[in-house]
């Protein structure tokens, strides 16, 4: 549905986007991750046709974005970084305006489209309030509503849950997930729990370049502590335990950390069986046995440092 090839954007002496290629299919939710200034928003602006690439091509549903800007805009819903402008309009007026831009002329059809997104984005209570007087979260919902008004097959959302309260974040994620079945979705986020909750694939961008394109699960496996174990043993010399564990064929390293041992398996294979195999015969008394939590944050930090 979206095909990006060797995309490049230069601003003066800065390569904001430096030769990125990737694809997104229908049914996929692609998460765009990367530090501030990595080039996420610039890439999204190029896909939606708001910024011209310095070089490279973008195809949306087979159409070249630069050659068919009007066709492309019909196929794409875009939630930009800083939400909707036109602050003096009410929500109703703004959505009506968007519906007209989108080419819905039939009054009944317009009403039906606007009602649908107001229900979807829970905007009914503020429909007649001017956008500039709305709270940040409600402004974000208006931005979301205008992006999906024409039910586009491609959705590009730049930090869609930024500034929302925890309940609303969940709500928006639910809506995005429900829409994903028949759409190709790209969203950028700095909220890593969002990636696990929403994305079927993740792209990490750093300094304009693509440094990872894989599933959230396989990204998680890159965590140094993936499948590691942490134990505390009492009543024996800890160095003796450490040495015995290190000799096991499935163990790559054992690190003493704060009076506890962290056991790192070879090839990040699960080593649960270790417990049963080794400890009873040695009469070690294990007072603590746990898997240290693994998250994407360390992985991303390491990849983008
Ligand atoms: N219009 C512009 N003119 C000059 N430089 C720009 C312009 N837009 C973006 N840049 C630069 O391009 C780089 C990438 O910016 P971009 O907004 O794409 O980053 P981002 O990954 O979206 O970051 P964030 O997480 O902060 O939103 C930055 O160095 C930024 O300063
Ligand atoms: Mg950005």
What does this structure look like?
The protein is of the alpha/beta class and 305 residues long. The protein folds into two domains: 2-220, Rossmann fold (3-Layer(aba) Sandwich), CATH 3.40.50.300; 229-304, 2-Layer Sandwich (Alpha-Beta Plaits). Helices cover 35% and strands 28% of the residues. The chain has eleven helices and 14 strands. Helix 3 crosses helix 4 (107-120). The longest helix is centred in the middle third of the chain and has 15 residues, at 166-180. The chain is elongated, with a radius of gyration of 25 Å. The mean pLDDT is 89.
- Give the count of structural domains: 2
Content of β-strand: 25-35%
- The counted number of beta strands is 14
Biggest sheet, spatial arrangement of strands: 6-7-8-3-9-10
The CATH homologous superfamily of the largest domain is termed P-loop containing nucleotide triphosphate hydrolases
DSSP helix fraction: 25-40%
Give a short account of the largest sheet: 6 strands, mixed
Q: Count of helices?
A: 11
Structural class label: alpha/beta
CATH topology of the largest domain: Rossmann fold
- CATH class group of the largest domain: Alpha Beta
Compute the average pLDDT.
89
Spatial gap, N to C terminus: 32 Å
In the CATH classification, which architecture of the largest domain applies? 3-Layer(aba) Sandwich
Ligand inventory: adenosine-5'-triphosphate, magnesium ion
The rough form would be described as elongated
């Amino acid at each position: 549905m979206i095909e990006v090839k060797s995309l490049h954007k230069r601003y003066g002496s800065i390569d904001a986007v430096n030769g990125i290629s990737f694809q997104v299919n229908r049914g996929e939710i692609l998460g765009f991750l990367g530090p501030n200034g990595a080039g996420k928003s610039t890439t999204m602006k190029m896909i939606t046709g708001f910024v011209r690439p310095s070089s490279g091509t973008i195809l949306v549903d087979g159409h070249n974005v630069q050659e068919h800007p009007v066709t492309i805009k019909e196929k794409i819903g875009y939630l930009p970084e800083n939400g909707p402008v036109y602050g003096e309009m009410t929500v109703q007026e703004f959505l009506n305006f968007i519906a007209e831009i989108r080419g819905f002329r039939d009054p009944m059809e317009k009403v039906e489209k606007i009602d649908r997104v107001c229900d979807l984005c829970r905007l009914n209570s503020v429909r007649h309030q001017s956008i500039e007087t709305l709270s940040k979260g409600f402004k974000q919902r208006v931005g979301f509503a205008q992006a999906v008004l024409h039910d586009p097959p491609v959705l590009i959302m730049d930090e869609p849950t930024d500034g929302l309260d925890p309940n609303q974040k969940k709500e928006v994620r639910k809506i995005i997930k429900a829409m994903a079945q028949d759409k190709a979705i790209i969203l950028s986020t700095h909220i890593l729990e969002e990636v696990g909750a929403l994305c079927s694939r993740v792209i990490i961008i750093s300094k304009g370049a693509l440094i990872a394109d894989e599933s959230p699960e396989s990204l998680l496996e890159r965590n140094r502590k993936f499948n590691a174990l942490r134990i505390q043993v009492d009543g024996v010399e800890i160095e003796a335990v450490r040495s015995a564990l290190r000799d096991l064929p499935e163990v790559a390293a054992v690190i003493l950390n704060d009076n506890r041992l962290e056991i790192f398996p070879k090839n990040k294979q699960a080593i649960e069986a270790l417990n049963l195999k080794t400890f009873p015969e040695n009469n070690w008394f294990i007072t603590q046995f746990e898997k240290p939590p693994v998250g994407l944050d360390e992985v991303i930090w390491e990849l983008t440092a």
